[in-house]
């Protein structure tokens, strides 16, 4: 088993997916008869990651009832419930004691579909990150800009993420998959909502964020139409 732990983000309300999410947490919506979270959990198990934490808020008990302690996936699952959604960074900060990372840990959005993503290869880059003179506070997986987000998020050139264009840099979209160093969240208070983007931009300004481009299948399952399209393709 790989010693690194993984946090699956599953606390969102899924407003754009209503009415499907009125009674079902968004990450439990299914593609090819398997929930989005189950796709992730099976992939994590195959990659040798044994410890997973799932944060939740809206209908969170349904997530716990569906996934249990992780035995069905060959994993150990813990839960980080949020009475009120804490945003991405706030949710990560609250889950840190359960993740208990020595330095880096993996985070994946629970509402993306990327069945072939090479988790093991990503995690294997940790030793390279640890050897850098100035260790990155985050390593982001970037993808080509999808139709619903053509403006992208950040620039990527020579494995360095930037907020401004440089020669040879490509504007890409953050996939929702990343390796984070615990120090990125050290100034946040537990239980206080906090967004991830400001933390990343501050680290980017200090050249402390690395990244890579992934061109395999990746989908942000953000609307009922996208969910229907993915299920139609996978029938």
Automatic annotation (TrEMBL):
Q: Does the keyword Transcription regulation apply?
A: no
Per UniProt, residues of the Nucleotidyl transferase domain are: 7-128
Q: Name one GO molecular function term.
A: nucleotidyltransferase activity
The record's listing under Pfam families reads: NTP_transferase (PF00483)
Q: Which PANTHER family match?
A: N-ACETYLMURAMATE ALPHA-1-PHOSPHATE URIDYLYLTRANSFERASE, NUCLEOTIDYL TRANSFERASE
NCBIfam families found in the cross-reference section: NAMPUrTaseMurU (NF045761)
Q: What is this protein called?
A: Mannose-1-phosphate guanylyltransferase
Q: Which organism is it from?
A: Polynucleobacter antarcticus
